[in-house]
């Protein structure tokens, strides 16, 4: 029995080497690179982690069986081990379970959100957009939707719940093709560049606008976000454990964390400071100039902070007025949003992106505006 325990301990030592490379690769300047990194988790890396935990459980249970059960050991140490082993095995089992539980998260901060991204962020076309491939079609109107993660459909498990896809179905896929150029983290300047580089000439342009679209210009002009960064409330070994392991990471993100960065003060300053606002409007001019060059129709949908609708409308009013002056048709949705219960406006507890219900509202309003 002693020899069996010793061989298990030797195998655990070798598993320890695998543990270091799997969970602490950065300490050895090792980087796991795969499609979707770092937003997406890798199914293959998780499979390797699953194998590690499974083999570790076998060795722990083997030591317990030969060291306590079969040897009929008694005393304080045996009692402590008898209590500790089931607890350790249960924690390992839960860690394995939570390696496969997806949950969308604003900003892809959590490990569960990386799992969600790997599972649901499909399709992705050859240009990197969360959309179908581009095909040449004669006789159909080409609609280009530009925007950030709200346009891209962050948090929606089915791409057909996204407003651009719903709009295409309502318009008729035999008459219209709607391409979605939404990109998480994009601002107005990025959107103008992507629109100009897109290989399809539009008949219709739809701009999805969110109050943080001014963020990049604001940062360039010296504005900063207030509040603590994620995980800043953790220190020492606890921070390492929460960041690297699935179960504690999932638990961490279910708890409230006061003091995280907020856009409210940032955008309030940005939209009232002409040194920030004017460069932002120039970025918008690049979009309207492209619209003019293609003779396309243009619509704009302003998605507010979904729990601060009136404030958002006040912040972005200068942008709305600017676009109206450029003959952009503004499609209002705020009166419809207030009729949606707050919990049904967003995709989840940790993700403030628009729900399928909200996307349906946007599609309906756009369809009505286009007819």
From TrEMBL:
Keyword flag Hydrolase: no
Residue ranges annotated as transmembrane are 5-24, 44-64, 76-101
Tell me the SUPFAM superfamilies matching this sequence. SGNH hydrolase
Specify the domain of life of the species encoding this protein.
Answer: Bacteria
Record keyword Transmembrane present: yes
Q: Which UniProt keywords apply?
A: Membrane, Transmembrane, Transmembrane helix
InterPro entries in UniProt:
SGNH_hydro_sf
Coiled-coil spans are: none
Q: What is this protein called?
A: Lysophospholipase L1-like esterase
> Organism, per UniProt?
Dyadobacter arcticus
């Amino acid at each position: 029995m002693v020899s069996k325990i010793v061989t298990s301990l030797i195998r655990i030592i070798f598993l320890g080497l695998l543990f270091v490379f799997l969970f602490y690769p950065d300490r050895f300047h090792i980087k796991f690179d795969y499609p979707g990194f770092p937003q997406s988790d890798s199914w293959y890396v998780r499979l390797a982690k699953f194998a590690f935990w499974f083999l570790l459980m076998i060795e722990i249970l083997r030591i317990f069986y030969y060291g306590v059960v079969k040897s009929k050991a008694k005393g304080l140490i045996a009692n402590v081990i008898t209590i500790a082993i089931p607890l350790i095995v249960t924690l390992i089992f839960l860690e394995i379970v939570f390696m496969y539980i997806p949950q969308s998260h604003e900003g892809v901060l959590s490990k569960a959100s990386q799992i969600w991204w790997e599972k649901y962020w499909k399709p992705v076309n050859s240009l990197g957009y969360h959309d179908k491939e581009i095909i040449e079609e004669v006789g159909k109107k080409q609609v280009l939707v530009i925007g950030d993660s709200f346009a891209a459909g962050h948090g929606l498990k089915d791409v057909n719940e996204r407003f651009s896809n719903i709009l295409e179905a309502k318009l008729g896929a035999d008459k219209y093709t709607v391409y979605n150029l939404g990109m998480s983290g994009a601002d107005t300047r990025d959107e103008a560049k992507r629109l100009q580089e897109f290989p399809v000439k539009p008949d219709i342009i739809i701009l999805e606008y969110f109050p943080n679209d001014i963020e990049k210009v604001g940062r360039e002009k010296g504005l900063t976000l207030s509040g603590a960064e994620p995980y800043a409330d953790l220190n020492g070994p606890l921070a390492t454990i929460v960041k690297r392991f699935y179960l504690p990471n999932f638990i961490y993100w279910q708890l409230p964390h006061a003091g995280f960065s907020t856009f409210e003060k940032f955008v309030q300053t940005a939209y009232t400071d002409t040194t920030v606002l004017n460069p932002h409007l120039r970025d918008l001019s690049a979009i309207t100039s492209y619209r003019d060059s293609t003779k396309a129709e243009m619509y704009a949908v302003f998605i507010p902070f979904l729990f601060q609708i009136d404030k958002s409308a006040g912040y972005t009013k200068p942008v709305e007025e600017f676009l109206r002056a450029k003959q952009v048709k503004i499609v209002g949705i705020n009166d419809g949003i207030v009729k949606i219960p707050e919990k049904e406006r967003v995709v989840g507890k940790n993700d403030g992106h628009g729900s399928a219900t909200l996307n349906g509202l946007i599609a309906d309003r756009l369809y009505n505006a286009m007819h």
